[in-house]
Amino acid sequence: MENMSGCDLDRLFNPRTLAFIGASASTSKWGFIILFNILKGNYKGRLYPVNPRTKAILGVPCYPSVGDISEDVDLAIITTPAKAVPGLIDECGAKRIPYVIVVSADFSETGPEGARLEHEVTAKARAHGIRIVGPNTMGVFSSQPHLHALMPPIMPLHGQVSMFSQSGNLGAQMLMWGFDEGVGFEKFVGIGNEADLTSIDFLDYFARDERTRIILAYLEGILPNSGLATLARKVSRQKPILVFKGGRTDVGTKAAASHSGAMAGSTRVHRAAFHQAGIIEVPTSQGMMDCAKAFANYPVPRGNRVGILTRGGGWGVITADACVESGLEVPPLPDEIERKISRILPPYWSHGNPVDMVAMGGDGPFMACLETLAAWDGIDAILALGGSGSRAFQYSQEIKGPRELKFVLAQEELIAEKFSNAPESTSVMTRQLVEQTGKPIIAVSLGSAESHKAALKDYHMVSYPTPERAVRVLQLMASYRRFIESPE
Fold this sequence. Notes:
CATH superfamily of the largest domain: Succinyl-CoA synthetase domains
């Protein structure tokens, strides 16, 4: 893809040499915490802490100034108080450092005096040819150089998702949720006040980054005439852009201005622009992670027709309602598919879509029904509601009672153990069906968070704990399909 912003950020995200200005031996300061995270993350490049009053921190020698570092420096990180930043920018300029991350706060987000200081920093950087991330940023993460230059102690999973965020804290939470749920990240940047580098620059770079498959963004405000929608319209046809928008109300708009200095603007205007640009606006923070899982691991459905497979009728009813209310279609089963499923299930099954297995146990019948639905040309995606059954057997050791009761509970534990490996074979077969048919098969399971994470990590199988969350993701995927098939 053509470079739209004219800015190449490779040395920012893949620095061979890094100067850390404001390194501190005090464990309560950001100058220690971020440095510690960089070291803990096994950064592959060469690290130069800068502190004129300390000889070494965590066993790494310190330098009095960036000018005392003998080799060229690709990236500098500044964590000093805000008033010291302008002078440090001059030092970085004399050293010809191309990129600087200003973690320090107390700039435009605090009022006129902070805005004046921010303007001074930006003017000095431009005079030296330096590009700035921030100020007021949580930092960056980049998987290839193992760069964990972040405030929180996060070690994200590596994957194909890249994110820029006007809230470093919210972005860091996405990295944490990603770790918990099995979603890996390629790159992350907290863009802070966007005094220099903006969302446009990072969207453009992630669009051209071959390692990035999905782009996430948290935005509170978009500068008028920024060109974000124009760029996104081109990027969206090649990569999904998922945006969670803050500042949707008057109260939220005021909070955004004091938080990142962003002017949130009209929600109605933003939503119209997002729709025209093919940007996928997710309604909640958890929805952002839900969508990232699906878009990163599944093909986009060819349409909005859904097949529903359920072991229990009630869940099928709820899922069908959620689909129709979200604009998805739940088509009736054709006679041929109904006859095939009738050979698998008891005579009293639902004989329709949703396919209710009437509590028939065993993975064999479930997979046979799933395979039959996947082969049906009349649907574009499947919601498979399995469930993990009763958990009572897990507590047999804690129950006090007659020996006979304990014996029965122990037998239940053995049976559960016998079938504990069943998800492996079903996951493999389900993944094969996804690849063969090009249809996303989204599971809804009552299993633990670890089971959801393991299915995603080991088999690239996407699952959710509720049908409503699964339906919402599928609805957004179908909407994205309509955009990429629309005329440019």
